[in-house]
Amino acid sequence: MKDVIHFYGMDFRWLNVLDLLLVVFLVIQLYRLLKGSLAFNIFLGLLVVYAVYFLVRFLEMPILSNILQNFINVGIIAIIIIFQPEIRKFLLVLGKKTPLSKDSFLTKLFLPDKFKSYREEEHVINEIVTAVSHLANRNVGALIIIATTYRVKFDSAASITIDSNVSARLIECIFEKGSPLHDGALIVVGHRILAAKVILPVSDNPDLPTRVGLRHRSAVGITEHSDNLAIVVSEERGTISYAEDGTLTMDVSPEDLKSKLYTLLVDGYA
Ligand SMILES: Nc1ncnc2c1ncn2[C@@H]1O[C@H](COP(=O)(O)OP(=O)(O)OP(=O)(O)O)[C@@H](O)[C@H]1O
């Protein structure tokens, strides 16, 4: 294979092409990740600075290129600080796609307990879907976080620890309007309800519909930087929605929610 490609009088190596493709891939991934967030404008600003820097270097303008070079050197540290949540999410998304992630072909092939029964997961799913359907039918607001690969960090001072089996009746009681635990979110980890009355981070995504309030915004907020699913029942409209990876899917049916939970809790391990 020829090592060098000739293109309009210029010589490129295959590695240069690969290098360029990887940069384009990374920029597209970053664009998709940041689209809709406030950090997106900062990202565009940085792209402009980089573009100007390469232009002045190409035009051999030493003073401007020196100033921009220094700005970019310090800028790397600033980028890590400014984009800390986005970098975290990016690495999380990348980790999900590695050959060793739980969804990967290799893991499924070599997972020792790939034939295990999913009775417990199915029980959890049925209880959650039953509770959510009943709450939605009666216009009782609810917010349930299903934490998968790592635990949700929450303020334990404000929340109430529960540590119980997942039961539809318990979930319905918790969100009943008169209940002292109905405000805030319920956290489910594995087969247990861990805590109630949890205050979550609120998303500042400007692309969310204006009609959604704090319950839906905090559902989006908790999924922006972590691998969780957030289920919301709207008190106002009696509808069911869920948020995942910072995206809100509104007005789903109980069947849609069930298949989402199956994908998350069963298929991911099957
Ligand atoms: N940061 C938060 N973390 C967890 N729960 C929250 C948070 N902020 C608000 N909530 C919950 O959301 C409720 C208020 O919901 P609000 O009406 O503002 O939102 P909404 O998205 O319009 O929901 P709904 O459609 O049910 O009215 C509060 O009573 C509280 O239970």
Features:
two-stranded antiparallel sheet; 9 helices; binds adenosine-5'-triphosphate; single chain; YojJ-like (1; alpha+beta
Summarize this structure briefly.
Probably a homodimer. The protein contains 9 helices and 9 strands. It is an alpha+beta fold.
Distance between the termini: 42 Å
Q: What CATH architecture label of the largest domain applies?
A: 3-Layer(aba) Sandwich
> What shape does the CA trace take?
elongated
**CATH fold naming of the largest domain:** YojJ-like (1
pLDDT averaged over residues: 83
Describe the 3D structure.
- The chain has 270 residues and is α+β, with helices and mostly antiparallel strands.
- The protein folds into 2 domains: 93 residues, no CATH class; 160 residues, YojJ-like (1, CATH 3.40.1700.10.
- The protein has 9 helices and 9 strands.
- The strands form 2 sheets. It has a 7-stranded mixed beta sheet with strand order 4-6-5-3-7-8-9, sandwiched between helices. A two-stranded antiparallel ribbon has the order 1-2.
- The longest helix is centred in the first third of the chain and has 21 residues.
- The protein is elongated, with a radius of gyration of 24 Å.
- The mean pLDDT is 83.
- Bound molecules: adenosine-5'-triphosphate.
- Belongs to the adenylate cyclase family. DacA/CdaA subfamily.
- Its EC number is 2.7.7.85.
- Probably a homodimer.
